[in-house]
Amino acid sequence: MADETQLIWVPLGGSDGTGAERMAMEVEPVGSGVVRAARPGEIVGTATRTLAESFDQVRAAAALLMDRLTTLPSPPSTVEVELGVKINAEAGAVVAKTAAEGNFTIRLTWQRAEVSPPGG
Questions:
Q1: How far is Cα 47 from Cα 19, in angstroms, rounded to an integer?
Q2: Which region, left, alpha or beta, applies to residue 59 given φ > 0 means left and ψ of -120 to 50 means alpha?
Q3: At 59, which helix (H) or strand (E)?
Q4: 22 contact partners, CB below 8 Å, separation of at least 6
Q5: What is the DSSP code (8-state) at residue 70?
Q6: Tens-digit pLDDT profile for residues 57-70
Q7: What are phi and psi of 101, to 5 degrees?
Q8: Can you tell me the distance from the alpha carbon of 67 to that of 50, in angstroms, rounded to the nearest whole number?
Q9: Pair 87, 54: CB distance under 8 Å
Q10: How far is residue 14's CA from residue 89's CA, in Å, rounded to a whole number?
């Protein structure tokens, strides 16, 4: 039974929480505490964060990655990072163990501009 997933409502609105739109997402069951039992396909609850708030976490991580990887003493011409991101009812966006395990696969690519030689 530990392999079963649950469905939750995830509000889509901005960080102010005013958006009324929501979508159902499949998530791993909460590991501890009492969770309302549900039949397969039945919604068991609502996420505590909006999807926008959850991806603000991913955005901050991406900005940090870009800063750290593109400011190396000898930076590569291209940096590509692929993350599997899954949604957790309490924590919001969580980086998955593997990209295939996530609700979303996000590929971020940065390409360094070529520097022209002086007078060229």
A1: 14
A2: alpha
A3: helix 51-70
A4: 9, 10, 11, 12, 46
A5: H
A6: 888 988 998 888 88
A7: -80, -15
A8: 26
A9: yes
A10: 17
